[in-house]
Amino acid sequence: SIRVTRRLTNDSFDGAEPVVGTDVYVVGDFRGSSVELGEPAVDPSTLGTMWWSWTAPASGKLFLSEAMHPFIFELFEGATLQSLTLLPIEPSPFFLIWEVQQGVAYKLRSSRVDTSLDTGVGRLRFAERPPNDHFADRILLTSLTNVFEVPTGIATIEPGEPTPYPHSVWYEWI
Prior knowledge:
This protein has about 170 residues and is mostly beta strands. Helix content is about 0%, strand content about 35%. The strands form three sheets. Strands 1-3-8-5-6 form a five-stranded mixed beta sheet, with no helix packed on it. A four-stranded antiparallel beta sheet has the order 2-9-4-7, with no helix packed on it. The protein is elongated and about 65 Å long.
């Protein structure tokens, strides 16, 4: 018998499929996928990998959800296989979360670690940091009756900031 296997376009780092948008699904059909020579270390049980590229439209957080076993997702920064740096994942029980910077091109790799499923899916969502994330960028309030939303969930803490909380945004009243 003859088995025909199609060559996947995003099976290689150089063939990474571009992802455009801030709330998108990445879908990979892993039938026929392989591990490319020179790829960063992969789980020893990896059967194949797929690659996507995405450029951050602003600084903020990239969330990956709805990913399921047997697929492992990782985010890298770098222009070649040899120069890739694996980004650390922020702790979360529900998502994979990465800190991303405006204009930086990232590579997302998904690795298949067993044969129970052929198709891997993940939802990528981007959230921009609030404009008043840093003290120098505080928002001026001119009235005590201002109504505003305080989006602190993806805000950061500046070095030396006097707060026990993990996120803060800044306002100034005059």
